[in-house]
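Predict structure. Chain length: 146.
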Amino acid sequence: MDKTVVVAVNWYQRHILYKKPMRRITKFYVDDREGLCQLGDTILIVETRPLSKTKRWRVAEILSHREVADIQPREIVSASITNVGDDEATSRPSDEASSRTDITQEIPAAEQPSEKPKTSKKTSPPQEIPAAEQPSEESREQGDQK
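Prediction complete.
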């Protein structure tokens, strides 16, 4: 898509039942032969004959240029990623990686969650409940006959 620009047009449509405006986005594939359009530009497009399966528009005029900040991915330092079994993972991080947090860093004892929550309520020891009497064989036989 060297000579193609994707133009997004935002428009609003009212919901039939709830009457709330819904935002819709329509994408147009536009032919840009000179390659002058950049990300963030506002352009004027005109309809033309089908140029491909999806392209039916071409750039008539660039109305305004707007600078969009490029966000570049950060570099991953291989020294900060080590296997857990390596000796380097358990050692202290190097000076270069001292500003980053280490994955294998242990939690101080004060911050570790306790095994049992401490409660201030005092409970009485459990009371013994008498076992229920077992039905006799005669009552079992009578229940089977009914």
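Summary: The two ends are 85 Å apart (CA to CA).
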